[in-house]
Amino acid sequence: MASAGLAVVTGASNGIGLELARIAASKGYDLIVAADEAEIDEMGAHLRDFGVAVDALNVDLATIEGVDRLYEAVEADGRSVDLLMANAGRGLGKAFLDQDFLEARQVIDTNVVGTVYLVQQLGRQMRTRGSGRILITGSIAGFIPGSYQAVYNGSKAFLNSFSFALRNELQDTGITVTCLMPGPTDTRFFERADMLDTEVGQAVKDDPQDVAKVGFDAMMDGEADVVAGWKNKFQAAMANVTPSAMLAERHAKIAAPGTANKHDEPED
């Protein structure tokens, strides 16, 4: 079977990124997948079962050097990228003043710096060819001041805004930019963010397979943005008409440490 093209997926060792890679592979796209976890090699072997070529890279996408290694793999392939799914992301819970700054910086460097640098590098390649599709994983968190997730929500607000601005700049180039805005999804996110003791960390979450399909389809259709799940659509709509102070207070009630199962505790 002839290849459908070349797709790059970051954060592809699990969760939404892995599901995006699976969808692309099932449609015949050769893959370059990257993550900062050793299991990306195992996932690369799994993705080859779809009958496509897969280059799996264990790189730190929070660093310029890590992104450069990914771009070098693209250049070594010799083909232009047809699909870029910039999904790598990191979260961090607890009060900002109680966070280790290096961990907070890792969130910013992964979600913002690394993503923007990768999009610029591969976006330039797409512009030279005159075609390409970019999917950036933002979040409905970007609409909400995230008490006890302040850096993470702020980083997603940046990505949401950046996606729309970049889409406008590229509207006459043959390149589309789509922003996928999921809500809480059943991945390792809350474990890695040290938020399992929160209400949102323990709540029922969306299936990453469903979220990825919504995002992939929107990208292929050239849509500007998509919010996965009707509850998240409602939440995003309400965020647009609710005062920021109220949104921050509501977020604190579900994201503050120790809020897990609070509604099951007897009142005094």
UniProtKB/TrEMBL annotation:
Pfam families, alphabetized: adh_short
Keywords for this protein: Oxidoreductase
One Gene Ontology MF term: oxidoreductase activity
Record's keyword annotation contains Oxidoreductase: yes
Entries under CDD domains matching the protein: SDR_c
Top-rank taxon, per record: Bacteria
InterPro entries: NAD(P)-bd_dom_sf, Sc_DH/Rdtase_CS, SDR_fam
Family recorded in the similarity comment: Belongs to the short-chain dehydrogenases/reductases (SDR) family.
Designated name of the protein: Oxidoreductase
Species this chain originates from: Rhizobium altiplani
